[in-house]
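JOB MANIFEST
job_type = single_chain_structure
chain_count = 1
residues = 802
[input]
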Amino acid sequence: MRRLSALLAFALLAAGATPPAAAAELPLPLYGHESAAATDDAGALYVNPAGIGLRYPAELLASWAMLENAPDLARWAATVGGLGLAYERAGDLGHTIGLAQAAGNERLRLGWGVDWRVDDRAHRTVTDHRLGLLSHPSPWLALGAVAEHLFEPAVAGARQDRAWTLAAGFRPLALDPARAHGWGTRLTLTADLMMTEGAARGDARVRMGAEFEAAPGLLVRGALEDHGGAYLGLTLRGVNNTLAAQRGSAGRHARSSGGTVSVHAGEERTALASRAQERVAVVRAGGDLGDDAMSGLSLFGGTDVTPARPLHQQLERALDDPLTRGVFLDVRGVGNMAQIEELRPRLERLRRAGKPVVAYLEVGAGRADLYLASACDRIVMAPEAIPSGLGLRAERRYYRGLLERLGVKVERTAYGKYKSAYRNFSVDSTPPADREAIERNLEVSQELFVRALCADRKLGRERVLGFLDGRPWRAEDLAAAGLLDSAGYREDALAMLGRLCGMGEKPRTAALPKRPAARREWLLPSPVAIVYAQGGIETGRSGGDLLLGPTLGSTTLIEQLERAFRRRETRAVVLRVESPGGSALASDLIHHATLRLKRETKKPLVVSMGSLAGSGGYYISSGGDRIYADRFTRTGSIGVLSIKPSLEGFWARQGVRQDDFDRGDWMRAWSVHHDWTPAEQATADSATLRFYRRFVECVATDRGLSWDAVDAVAQGRVWMGEDALERRLVDEIGGLEAALGEARRRAGVPAGARIRPFEFRRPQPGLLERAVGGLVRQAWDDAVRLPEPGAPLYWMDADETP
C-alpha cells in the first residue's frame, strides 16, 4: 500500500497536476460494470492498462454498442501476456488505435498506453498517453488508479484536460480464507471516482458496480452512476469463450445497448460446458526425478535430473479441473523412489475423487515404473515390452590395486565404522560394516516395494517376490499374475480409461500444460517460503564440480535463507534437502545460518528430506523444528572423513626427484606429492575425531538427545526413512506436501485456505552466461573445484546404498 501511494504521488507530481476537482466521462462498459480496480481481461485496454494479461495468457475481444443520439461504437482488442492492441471506431467520425504494455506481479502492476486518435473528417491524428496502476494487497481488496491525457493533447482544437480515476474493488466472500479461492471470487463490488483537472468538484463522476456469478458460467453485472447512469449486463462464460449483452444509460437521455464476444486461451474453472468438452488428462512421467532440473558431468558420470514439480502441478490441476474426468499416466522410465513416493498420494486423491487413473507402460517397466503405476486404477503394458531388472542390486568397485600399479595412493582418514565414502580408493574389498549397511538398506527397500505392490494390487507376498528375481518377463506373464491388468497398446489403455470414466472407447484427451487455467483470484498469499537445497555441498556459489557434479554453494543457499526468513510476508520456512553432503565448513556455515535466522526472526523452520539427506545434508537439516523424511529417503551418515591423493609413488616410478623446503613440521602432510607418515596419519585421525565429536554434539543439541544416543546411531551409518524415524533422527514420515502442511499450521494458515509458497530454487545460468561461458579461466576453476587435500568432509557415498 505504501508503494502504491508513493507511485501515485509521483505520477501526480510528474504530470504537474493540481489537486483534482472534477470528473471526465466514464468509459462505456463492455459487460455492464467495468472498474479500474477489477478489470483484468482484454477490456483493461479501455479501462486500466495495468490489468492487461492478468486473467488470460491471450485473448481476442470484439464489442458493439448502439448509442442513442450518437454514432455506433465498435471496439476490438487483442492481448498476449502483458501486451495489448486495441481498435475503436465511432461511426464515420474517427477511429483510435491503442497500444499498451503492462508489467509487474499480482501485488503491483504498472501499465502504459498510447492511443493514436484519427479524425476521419479533418484527417488529423493526435497521440494520447495513459498511465495505470493496479494493486492487490489481499485476496479481497483491489486498488486501481488511472491517469489519462497525461500530456493534454488537443483533439478537434480542444485541449483534453488530464483525468484521474481512483478505484477500489471488494470481494466480501473472500474475507474467509477458506472460501477465497472458490466462492470468494463470485461476488465483486467496485467503486470508481473519475475527476478532471479544472472542473468543478460537483461534476465528479462516481460509478458503483457489482458482479455476481449466480451459477457456474452465468454472471449478472451492473453499475449505477451518481449522475443518473445505470447499466445491466448478462454474461455467459464458456471454457475458452465469453458472450455478453448489456443495456444502460449515461444520464436521462443517452441510452445504449450492446454485446461482447471474447475468445481466450486461459480455461475458466467455473463455466458453461458441454459433455463434449470433457476430457482425460495425458500426463507423461519419465526421467530421474528431482526437485530441480540439473545436468552436468563429473569424473564419475553424468547428472541429468528431471524436475518433479510439473508432474505435481498437472495432477493437482487434473484434480481441481471439473472438465477432467480421468488421467492417462504415460510412464516412460521414471526414477527416484522417494520422489515417486510423493507422487503416489496425488494419484490416490484423484481416485478418491472419482477420477480414474490408468498407467500405460510402453517401453517395459523397472521397479520405479511399477511403484508409480501400482498407485493407479489400471496398468496396461505394451505386449512386446520387456519388464526386467525388477530385483535389487548394489555394486561396489575398489580401485586400490589399479592406483598402486600407477603409483598413486589415496590417503584417507575417517571416523565412523560405517563411513564408506571414498573407501573404495584405499581398500580392496567391502568391510563387514559396509556390507551390513548395504544389506540392511536393500532389505528395507525390498520390503517397502513389496508391501506397496501387495496392497495396491491385492496380491500375496510370495507371488510378488516371485517376479523380483531379475529375470526378463513378458507383459502377459505380469498380467496373468495380477501385477498388470492387461497387455495392450496405447489405444487399448485409453479405451480402458474411457470406459472407467463413462466417456466411451475414444475419450477426448488433453495435455493440461498446453491449456493454462484462467486466473480468478486477486491474490494468493505466500506466508510459507520454500528453499531448495540440492547437490553436493561446497563453499561459495552453487555451480558444478568435476568430482561431485552439480554443487550446492553455501553462499548461495545462505543468501536464499536470509531472503526467505526476512520476507515480511513469510511466517514459516521449509528447507527441502536433496544432498549427500560435502564440505564440513560449508555445512557448518549453513547450519549456523538456519539457527541464527530462526533466533533472529522467531520464525519456524520445517525440513523436508527428498531422496537423500546424508552427512552434510543431514547436518544442515538437523536444526529444523520438525524434520520429515520419505520412506525411501536415505539419511543420517553422521560421520567425518578426509582424503588426500598422493603421487609420491608415481613420481618415483617416473624417475622424478623432489626436494622439500618447509617452515613447519607438518606442512609436508598437505602435499599431494607425499604419502602420510604414521605420525601424520595419526594427526589426521585426531583432527577427524574432533570434527566428528562436534557433528554429534550439534545433532544431539538440535534433536534434544544425549551425545551417546546420537553416537550410537551415527558412526557414518545411513538409515532409510522409517529406520531414521525409529532412531529419532527425523520426526515424521512424509514428503514435501506433509512438510508444507506443518509449515501452514505453524504459520497460522486456516485449513482449506489456498496459498502459493514463495520458492527459492537453484539458480540457473542466464542466457548470455550459457552462451559465452564467462572467462575461460574462471569456468575452469569452477569446474575443477575438488576437495582440498585433508579438508574434513561430511559426505555420504551415493553408492553405499541402493
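[summary]
The longest helix spans residues 432-457.
The chain is about 25% helix and 30% strand.
exit_status = 0
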